[in-house]
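Figure 6 in text form: structure in, sequence out.
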């Protein structure tokens, strides 16, 4: 292309870009983020088909959940950010009420009471709190001078503590960690003073002994011991980690090929379609496949943080930063536990592991990111 042709086409390209930007603003859709999510959706369905033993109904069910999740994302993206801020207290209280309802009316499965059944629909209220909590804390802090004062920090910790304690009682340690993290991230990005961070670390370290002896269940302590040495019970509690490491290592650089993994195909790897699905992917697509997945994850996280930086108000910045960083924690915890670096706490790999409510909640969070990315400029008056 000649220099003259290039200069002649520049206005056309600029006009096309402007039209796409206006379309994105009208639809409240971040097309780059949407493209990344669609790639992850295709990867998730592809890996799930192999991990489920070529069980097509499982893939169809997952695809249905993805369809519901995309609709949820588009609907949430249309909600004005200021409306989210005003409705934050109601969302938080409603989420806590649902968690309390779980303790009374919840369905019990595999020794845990985590689900509510309404008609023919079963869901986990704890997934709702992954969004209701950061929205409530972002709304609380955004109307105040930052960094937050001590009384505001304590109020936020109280908001975090109530749902976290209720979820721990279900018991669901993995989800409680993610819910608490979503709130703590808002507090961290609010400009929390270093003296508070150092004090929090000191309190945490000092509380490890009583937590270990008086708060953790026996099976939770066993998970920590298994992480340190899975060979102490290779046919029992250490089986999952040993088989997971075997699958990851056997994949090598480029993997054995799609649907050619022996650990999952021969049923050596339990929960290969849920929490340990990254081990299946590692075996079939190797290190290169996992690196490519991590690159896509990183692009999603960076896009979310960019939306946070460009947000027009404090509420949007805090909320977008929390959603993006909590997504990172999802990935980090799952890969850490599957590789034996962290205890197994039942955290699925986002958008890849099989799931229902968790996927819809994740996409609702992405809908919030899209709403923030297309919001109009608003001015909020801080309070003391």
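Output sequence:
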């Amino acid at each position: 292309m000649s220099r003259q042709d290039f200069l002649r086409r520049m206005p056309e390209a600029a006009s096309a870009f402007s039209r796409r930007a206006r379309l994105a603003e009208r639809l409240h859709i971040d097309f780059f983020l949407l493209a990344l999510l669609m790639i992850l959706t295709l990867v998730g369905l592809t890996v799930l088909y192999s991990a489920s033993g070529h069980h097509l109904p499982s893939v169809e069910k997952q695809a249905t959940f993805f369809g519901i999740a995309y609709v949820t994302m588009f609907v949430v993206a249309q909600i004005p950010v200021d409306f989210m801020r005003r409705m934050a207290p109601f969302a938080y209280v409603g989420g806590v009420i649902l968690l309390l309802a779980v303790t009374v009316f919840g369905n019990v499965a595999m020794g845990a009471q985590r689900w509510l059944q309404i008609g023919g629909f079963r869901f986990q209220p704890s997934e709702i709190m992954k969004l209701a909590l950061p929205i409530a804390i972002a709304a609380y802090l955004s109307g105040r001078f930052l960094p937050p004062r001590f009384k505001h920090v304590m109020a936020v910790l109280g908001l975090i503590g109530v749902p976290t304690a209720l979820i721990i009682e279900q018991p669901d340690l993995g989800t409680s960690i993610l819910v608490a993290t979503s709130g703590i991230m808002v507090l961290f990005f609010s400009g929390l003073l270093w003296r508070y961070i150092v004090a929090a670390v000191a309190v945490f370290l000092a509380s490890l002994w009583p937590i270990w002896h008086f708060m953790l269940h026996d099976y939770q302590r066993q998970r920590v011991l298994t992480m340190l040495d899975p060979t102490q019970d290779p046919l029992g509690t250490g089986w999952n980690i040993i088989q997971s490491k075997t699958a990851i290592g056997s994949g090598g650089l480029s993997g054995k090929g799609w649907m050619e993994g022996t650990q999952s195909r021969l049923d050596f790897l339990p929960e290969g379609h849920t929490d340990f699905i990254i081990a299946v992917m590692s075996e079939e697509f190797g290190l290169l496949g996992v690196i490519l997945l991590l690159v896509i994850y990183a692009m999603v996280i960076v896009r979310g943080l960019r939306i946070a930086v460009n947000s027009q108000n404090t509420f949007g910045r805090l909320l977008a930063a929390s959603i993006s960083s909590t997504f990172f924690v999802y990935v980090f915890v799952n890969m850490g536990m599957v590789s034996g670096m962290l205890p197994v706490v039942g955290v699925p790999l986002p958008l890849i592991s099989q799931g229902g409510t968790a996927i819809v909640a994740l996409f609702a969070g992405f809908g919030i990111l899209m709403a923030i990315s297309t919001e109009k400029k608003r001015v909020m008056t801080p309070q003391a």
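Caption detail: DSSP finds 14 helices and three strands in the chain.
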